[in-house]
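BUG: 3D viewer hangs when loading the predicted structure for this chain

Environment: internal workstation, default settings.
Expected: structure renders.
Actual: progress bar stalls at 90%.

Input used:
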Amino acid sequence: MTFTDQNNFGLQCKDVSHWFGETKVLFNLNLDVHAGQFVALVGPSGCGKSTLLRAILGTHPPHRGKILTMQNGRLANADRPGRDRGIVYQKYSLYPFLTALDNVALGLKLDQTTTSFRWFNWSGWSKKRSDFRDQAAAFLKKVGLGQAMNLYPSQMSGGMQQRVAIAQALIMEPEIILLDEPFGALDEATREELQEMLLRLYEENAEIKAAGEKPPYTLIIVTHELNEAIRVGDRLVGLSQYWDWKSEGHECSPGATVVYDKSAPVFRSDERPEYELFDDMRKEIRKYVYNPEVLQHCHEHVIVNPTH
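Structure tokens produced before the viewer hung:
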């Protein structure tokens, strides 16, 4: 792989299938994600979106197929968790006895120091700790919490806590960040604020990419809100169990696969999208991804590697 290719590589899922006993969940799923893309993953309940995220994360590797990520500058099989992948869940899990600053710095502390180092090298640990907290402060500012660094989780709203969770993922500088319904428990106004925060990261990507460097943020966000998917993602991927598997010789459903994959409009962080203009897109997704009565060939609405 050339250096240019490395700058473009984000993730590759190749012929991924997964099942739990007799229950088939994912079937022959293929997905290539370019560095810097924000992929919005949508689909019916129970279609395997979270299963796919866990497979990418490495906690539940697929039974068949491979998932490749960039690890230490080389392509590697994501068959176990690694620092190259980060995840943010709907339910944020912050340590209640740590401030926002120390919650974010914790990942660096655990990754780059040992207990013996912290106990027996006080001067070295003091310098490291100061550096970790400086980095944590920078990422808290990036997610809009520059004035809340010293607050404890009990003093923060749900939206603020989710910002801390996102900063926790960002500070580890993973190759790809997975977000599993990250804003699902928040009110609409807070959701919109956090969507704008993600779009600012996308704008930062664009600036860095224009300078010829690899964009730092590659996201896959699972959401059940189509408007959110359209606003945040520059690419919409529909995962569904509703496809014409009989025509491919299967006697029963082999599981969900990618049935929809197209580019999405790109919004500025300060732009209020007029969602009514994208009603056709929402109708198309509902028809081909969510409707069990419409069983099309699984590649009919898939554009290979859509990119802006």
